[in-house]
Design a protein that fits this description.
- By secondary structure, the protein is mainly alpha-helical.
- α2 packs parallel to α5 and α9 packs parallel to α11.
- The N and C termini lie far apart (about 85 Å).
Length: about 350
Amino acid sequence: MKMVEANIFRTLPAPQDGEDFEEDMDDNPSSSTWPHLQAVYEFLLRFVVSSEVKSKVARKYLTRTFCKRLIDLFDNEDPRERDYLKTILHRIYGKFMTYRSMIRQYIQYTFFTFVYDTNSHAGIGELLEILGSIINGFTLPLKKEHESFLARALIPLHKPQSIAAYHLQLSYCMTQFVEKDPKTTEIILCGLFKFWPWLSSAKQVLFLNELEDLMELLDDEILDRIHVPLFRHLAQCLSSVHFQVQERTLYLWNNDHLVNHGCLNKHNSAKCLTYVHEPLTKISKEHWNANVQTLGHNVVKLYMAYDMGFYNKLSQKLIRTTQKREEKEKHREECWEVIRSQG
């Protein structure tokens, strides 16, 4: 173990700006040392997984400090090393039950440092992969510690600009929590809306992918509590100035599960249409993008088939609202004309 520590615990090289390590791996200076490091990591992995190494004895060498330093190594540009670290740390987590809480807490500390301080970390995706397996093994009811970890460490990971690098793993952790305990859906969706990236269309598309996965797992009880922020949020996305955000939002109605059994079905049509009627009407009548307009028209026809009377009622209300808005704007312009003429 002294040999392992002497080789793997070292000062990591600074991230290389403007270069993709995975594409230019052979040209990277650290690639020359990898065959040596690989042998050391292979030795450590065999030591950890060996059935002949008893947990009680191994704890003398695989200490808590060792595990923390191992987690620090995840901030490494080499995906090959991160893959070994992921496997080894996961094995340690499974073998040493007394270390589990400490490992989760130090991963949480790593996330805090990333989100609120450095905004740079190469191994967030791998740490989330480990957590995906850990969450799957949580017992019910969830401990307060686990709910706190979700709210304070995982959900804020939606905030950084580099979320695209680990969003797939983060989304998987979110769905794992919901499948484990449906009550966490409300916490996750409220957190998702809180960190919604209104200034980045690319990130909004990622968030909409995650939102669709979560909506598929919504039950009626949770939906009754959060339908107002959920459908209001969909309406805001439909009113986006970027057509790709509108298009991705409209594709939610192409999800058979959501339309037939989920929160966009006939039973919830009145709740949803109350919020999305106005942006849907505008999209279906006057949007410049043909595909978005077609998608919007299909959604309108869907809700008209559900309840034509309620749809017409909302249409009449929209006409009156639009007229009042135009009259108010006309009156405003007339006031400005008077002010200009007096000036």
